């Protein structure tokens, strides 16, 4: 499984021949100015909620690639009105089988509205189960006991968790979340993009190490294999 980071909470997963993009917020992100949005190839675009820092480039990338947008009903309906033909609506607790594996939408504790103020339903996260690995993309969320339900249904290999504080969990809550979902490998997201969510990289890595967790902070544009 190949993972490329495009800043904030945007990751591209290459799973076999399929490319799955999460929460694309690239072109307005000064930290991601070296990324050419139009060069990104995606087959599916998964959106955790409607805030601009998660959906800004979704329409552009979807139209460039004829990609399928997967999100809750309200977000999908909004994109259908923008001429996006390939969509799959979901809601919390639902699961869909796609060519690369299954996607289950799970609870997230966070607000949600689309860039024009349209109601975007409730925020969510995703558990993606593939042939070889299973992972949890938490989206924007507070720490919640609902996370304890995830390992009752899935054996996770790793989790992508927000660590920037202020709008989401900080590193301390994220490490509790890692315990709740029973993972030792965490990819951090939703940090540094804005002054409100800037973090001390060395400090959060030390905190994670003391908790016995592997915290991966990817560079924008970096690709890793897990």
Radius of gyration: 16 Å
Shape: globular
Strand order in the sheet with the most strands: 6-5-4-3-2-1-14
CATH superfamily: Ribonuclease Z/Hydroxyacylglutathione hydrolase-like
Low-confidence stretches: none
Largest sheet: 7 strands, mixed
Number of strands: 14
User: Into how many domains do the coordinates divide?
Assistant: 1
CATH architecture: 4-Layer Sandwich
Per DSSP, the total helix count is 6
Helix and strand composition category: alpha/beta
Give, in order, the helices and strands: EEEEHHEHEEEEEHEHEHEE
Description:
- The protein is globular and about 50 Å long.
- Helices cover 20% and strands 28% of the residues.
- With 226 residues, it is α/β, with parallel strands linked by helices.
- The chain has a single domain (2-225), classed as Metallo-beta-lactamase, Chain A.
- The strands form 2 sheets. Strands 6-5-4-3-2-1-14 form a 7-stranded mixed sheet, covered by helices on one side. It has a 7-stranded mixed sheet with strand order 7-8-9-10-11-12-13, covered by helices on one side.
- It has helices spanning 52-55, 58-65, 73-81, 150-153, 171-181, 201-210; strands spanning 2-5, 11-15, 18-22, 44-46, 68-72, 87-90, 95-98, 101-107, 124-129, 134-137, 158-162, 185-189, 214-216, 223-225.
- The longest helix is centred in the C-terminal third of the chain and has 11 residues, at 171-181.
Give keywords.
226 residues, alpha/beta, seven-stranded mixed beta sheet
């Amino acid at each position: 499984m190949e993972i490329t980071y495009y800043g904030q909470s945007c990751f591209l997963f290459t799973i076999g021949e399929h490319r799955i993009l999460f929460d694309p917020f690239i072109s307005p992100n000064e930290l991601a100015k070296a990324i050419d949005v139009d060069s990104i190839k995606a087959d599916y675009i998964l959106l955790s909620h409607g805030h601009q820092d998660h959906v800004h480039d979704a329409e552009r990338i979807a139209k460039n690639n004829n990609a399928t947008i997967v999100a809750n009903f309200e977000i999908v309906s909004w994109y259908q009105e923008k001429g996006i033909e390939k969509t799959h609506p979901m809601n919390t607790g639902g699961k869909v089988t796609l060519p690369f594996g299954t996607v289950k939408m799970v609870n997230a504790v966070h607000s949600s509205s689309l860039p024009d103020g349209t109601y975007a339903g409730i925020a969510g996260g995703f558990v993606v189960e593939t042939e070889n690995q299973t992972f949890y993309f938490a989206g924007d969320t507070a720490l919640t006991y609902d996370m304890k339900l995830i390992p009752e249904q899935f054996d996770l290999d790793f989790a992508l968790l927000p660590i920037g504080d202020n709008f989401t969990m900080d590193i301390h809550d994220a490490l509790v979340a890692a315990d709740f979902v029973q993972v030792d490998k965490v990819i951090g997201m939703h940090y540094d993009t804005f002054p409100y969510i800037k973090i001390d990289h060395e400090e959060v890595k030390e905190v994670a190490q003391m908790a016995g967790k592997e915290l991966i902070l990817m560079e924008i544009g970096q690709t890793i294999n897990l």
